[in-house]
């Protein structure tokens, strides 16, 4: 793809499209619908002219502060280029009542306090924590969104949701839908095999294609001083296992267990089609025995039981890690930290080696990051204004203008100069800021199949149509034109990952915690982590796994399995 692409101005067709969409979603003031709070019929008062609600309608919300979000020009969540665009272009005024940091659970805590205190809820808000979401669903204070979604969501948004019907499951109760999932692209969340390419080259090694070759590479990385400092201080294989074995975007261990035919801490169908808990599959015993052997041989860090996301990224940044699993953006972070002190270091993504008896499995993320919860007492005008807003963002997937939203993105996500589009952080006044993080959802709008098709074409450096380029309109990516070398590596990882998608194991249980989970999960989790850790550290033989499985089943595991399958049967 060329390095420059002309900026297309919004065409009359685009204006007409948005106007038509607005008329469909709101009825242009002529439709009657159910009042969101009372269930009584009421006439919409929205008046939409050229895609803009006149007069503007206010939507109240509260926000979790994304630690990676940046602002400039004195802007805040309450007032920024996106909120002004929404009001000026769509006639939707976003009024943030309060915001709180999400990284340290402050936002989540405030949401719970808002509910327990009986405080009046805003029109809508985002929740990313399942326990908090379930509390609101069970409170009876949320809107059953199914009717509103069917009535007001655009065909494009509906089609995007129809691709991943399971995304609704965590937000349902008694067959009703009480939140709208915030979709995420899942391709790229799986692990390829990330290997230090400079170490392979130095030791004249090839990337492993099977378990035996993997062990040979690990042995060389542990014992042949690949970093050349004369010390035996490298970590051949890195992963996180502090409190959990899966769920770390950097340091994923699912693929390691998957080499032996099972994944812990994940519910997925067994041979009989019923969901089973991967942690108690017999293949886990074989995996633990092999991991213990690797630790004894020095392939794994002595303090591996303390490794979590932060520790793994710290070790990667220090240049000590040879092999690990992680999402496709690993070279962007923490790889960039490694390059800052060692510019010649480089990770390359490779396909997973074939495991024992031809086994391979790995986790793939759920197709949502959280959900938008809507107050059951929201006014009909505010409800329709919300859908008008979301529908407009989803129009990027129908647009021939890659910069459809330049009203809030230009000068922030990109810059135009002499007819060329510039993504270079250093050339954008005040630096680059990802305006998608200012939206209600705090994320890009996702239509998985279309975004995946465009992403793979971009990864192959094929020419993209303007409509395919528009798929990235709300993504906040560093560059569309592959000018960022670390993104190019991420693109290559996408291609590698896509060749082994048959190994992907999603989490099939997406329901709220079952009654037995609520009372027994902490005990069962501790029992599991203690047993697995002691086997890995050689304090118990692998046979301890058999005793763990029996105790897990009798201590509530069998009851949980029954409850999980009752839920699964209800949504299949």
TrEMBL record:
PANTHER family the record matches: ARABINOSE-BINDING PROTEIN-RELATED, POLYGALACTURONAN_RHAMNOGALACTURONAN-BINDING PROTEIN YTCQ
Which Gene3D superfamilies does the record cross-reference, listed alphabetically?
A: Periplasmic binding protein-like II (3.40.190.10)
Where would one find the signal peptide in this protein?
Answer: 1-25
The entry's protein name is Extracellular solute-binding protein
* Keywords associated with the record: Signal
The taxonomic lineage of its organism, from the top, reads: Bacteria, Bacillati, Bacillota, Bacilli, Bacillales
Q: Record keywords: Oxidoreductase included?
A: no
